[in-house]
């Protein structure tokens, strides 16, 4: 990665962004790979230029935001309840882009085990994770950094491991060993 020149107000864009993005992507190491390599400055591909920031996006003071909560408690009791839940999901998706589901029937133990498996995956050596690195969305199991890496104005500081369960769920052997239920 090319060293960046950052100060409080600007990023000097004396680099080839597409080249930087490709170099980052080609490592197949993701954001954690950058951290593990010992970087001391955030690469410019992750920095939003100050002139593109809007003061409207700044949340100063006390702003109370609450993620929509969708309750599945009575989802199987009839068409009206199901229709209402579908409408709530649609509304939350359109306005927030995300929502929380409650009363889904999945035990906390199972959810905790899923989170532990994901943590174990991300803590593996880069060489192991590279086996799953792909931008090929149709793959059942893939690891990637920044879904819209080449489209967004700035990259997100995030890595993802994704498991596609439909239309055909992956076989147990397709899951990384550290993510399998034991």
Structural overview:
By secondary structure, this protein is an alpha+beta fold. Helices cover 31% and strands 9% of the residues. It contains five helices and four strands; from the N terminus they run ααβαβααββ. It has helices spanning 17-27, 30-36, 79-95, 108-123, 126-130; strands spanning 69-71, 100-102, 141-145, 159-163. The strands form two sheets. The chain has a two-stranded parallel ribbon with strand order 1-2. Helix 3 links the parallel strand 1 and strand 2. The longest helix has 17 residues, at 79-95. Residues 1-11 have low confidence and may be disordered.
Provide key terms for this protein.
single chain, alpha+beta, two-stranded parallel ribbon, 5 helices, globular
Q: What topology does this entry show?
A:
Blueprint: H1 17-27, H2 30-36, E1 69-71, H3 79-95, E2 100-102, H4 108-123, H5 126-130, E3 141-145, E4 159-163
Parallel strand pairs: 1-2
Antiparallel strand pairs: 3-4
């Amino acid at each position: 990665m090319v060293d960046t020149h950052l100060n409080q107000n600007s990023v000097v864009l004396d680099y080839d962004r597409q080249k930087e993005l490709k170099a980052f992507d080609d490592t197949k190491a993701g954001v954690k790979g950058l951290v593990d390599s010992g970087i001391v400055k955030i690469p410019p591909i992750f920095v939003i230029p100050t002139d593109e920031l809007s003061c409207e996006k700044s949340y100063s003071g006390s702003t109370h935001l609450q993620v929509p909560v969708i309750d599945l408690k009575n989802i199987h009791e009839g068409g009206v309840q199901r229709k209402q839940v579908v409408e709530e999901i649609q509304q939350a998706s359109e306005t927030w882009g995300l929502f929380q589901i409650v009363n889904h029937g999945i035990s906390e133990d199972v959810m905790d085990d899923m989170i532990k498996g994901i943590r174990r995956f991300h803590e593996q050596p880069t060489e192991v994770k590279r086996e799953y690195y792909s931008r090929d969305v149709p793959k059942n199991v893939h690891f990637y950094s920044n879904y819209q890496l080449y489209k967004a104005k700035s990259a997100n500081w995030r890595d993802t491991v994704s498991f596609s369960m439909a239309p055909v769920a992956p076989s147990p052997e397709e899951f990384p060993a550290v993510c399998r239920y034991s």
